[in-house]
């Protein structure tokens, strides 16, 4: 800008503010105290504007923001840790809010818009939700350490027809793990004799098995709990498996959610592994 228009703009600004920004003399022009303050504040504002522009771009590209996730407790045994680690490394400016909850509440909170995505056991039938399998693993048999079958390397599912079973909780519209376990038993020709049912936490199921209350079919990743008094055995024959999936609203087009889904898909997971019996 040429000098005359610049001087004119400065005078107009001084008139609007009602203060003198520059002291003019034969020795030159110097800023007044008010002028120094204005310069400092202008620089701060420009820095804020530049920072805001950068933040807006990162949010638009799914690189910054906030994401709220619901998850069933057992998904943290093996599935969630590598996903969260990879996402945190790639997108450190995204705040992740994690909420442990039952699968039926995950579905409810998704519909209410209180969470952005959730991890739960499949199947799930809900036309308003997108469902994607993330991990598939075998169901293994959890036995009390003193059970007659504890010395077997593998156990036929049909041999459990008369055994007392500890069953996971059953939720309306979300058959999940309960549905997988009972379906496997029906395919083997029997209905499990439930001596304890509607148990939500895998830790509790394994604890009841250790106490000799009954046997249970649990996801292979539960072996990470390594509870004393429990042995895990591969189930021979039907090779039942269970799927953990991620669910989100079909109409959610959030950039941060897209970034999280991409990381979830790219994170390797164990699928259909054949675990050996462990204590």
Task: Give keywords.
3 domains, 279 residues, disordered C terminus, two-stranded antiparallel sheet, D-Maltodextrin-Binding Protein, domain 2
Mean pLDDT score: 85
| C-alpha-based Rg, rounded | 30 Å
* CATH architecture descriptor text of the largest domain: 3-Layer(aba) Sandwich
- Uncertain segments are 271-279
- Compute the number of strand runs: 12
Which structural class do the helices and strands define?
alpha/beta
How many separate domains make up the residues? 3
Kindly estimate the percentage of residues that lie in beta strands according to DSSP. 25-35%
| Run of helices and strands | HEEHEHEHEEEEHEHEEEH
Fill in the CATH topology of the largest domain.
D-Maltodextrin-Binding Protein, domain 2
Major sheet size, sense and barrel closure: 8 strands, mixed
- Helices, by number, come to 7
CATH class of the largest domain: Alpha Beta
| Approximate shape | rod-shaped
- Summarize the amount of helix as a percent range: 25-40%
In CATH, the homologous superfamily of the largest domain goes by the name: Periplasmic binding protein-like II
């Amino acid at each position: 800008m040429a000098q005359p228009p610049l001087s004119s703009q400065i005078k107009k600004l001084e008139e609007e503010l009602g203060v003198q920004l520059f002291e003019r003399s034969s020795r030159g022009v110097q800023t007044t105290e008010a002028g120094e303050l204005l310069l400092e504040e202008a620089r701060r504002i420009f820095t804020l504007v530049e920072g805001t522009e950068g933040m807006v771009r990162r949010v638009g590209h799914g690189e910054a923001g906030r994401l709220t996730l619901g998850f069933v407790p057992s998904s943290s045994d093996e599935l969630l840790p590598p996903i969260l680690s990879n996402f945190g490394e790639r997108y450190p400016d995204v705040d992740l809010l994690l909420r442990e909850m039952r699968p039926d509440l995950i579905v409810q909170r998704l519909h209410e818009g209180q969470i952005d995505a959730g991890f739960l056991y499949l199947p799930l039938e809900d036309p308003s939700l997108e469902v994607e399998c993330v991990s598939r693993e075998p169901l293994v048999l959890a036995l009390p350490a003193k059970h007659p079958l504890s010395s077997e390397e593998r156990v036929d599912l049909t041999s459990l027809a008369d055994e007392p079973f500890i069953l996971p909780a059953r939720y309306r519209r979300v058959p999940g793990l309960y549905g997988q376990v009972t379906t496997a038993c029906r395919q083997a020709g029997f209905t499990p004799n439930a001596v304890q049912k509607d148990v939500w936490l895998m830790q509790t199921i394994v604890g009841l098995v250790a106490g000799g209350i009954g046997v249970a079919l649990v996801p292979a990743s539960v072996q990470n709990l390594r509870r004393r008094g429990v042995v895990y055995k591969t189930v021979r024959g039907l090779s039942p498996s269970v799927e953990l999936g991620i669910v989100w609203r079909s109409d959610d087009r959030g950039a941060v959610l897209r970034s999280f889904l991409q990381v979830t898909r790219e994170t390797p997971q164990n699928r259909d592994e054949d675990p050996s019996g462990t204590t």
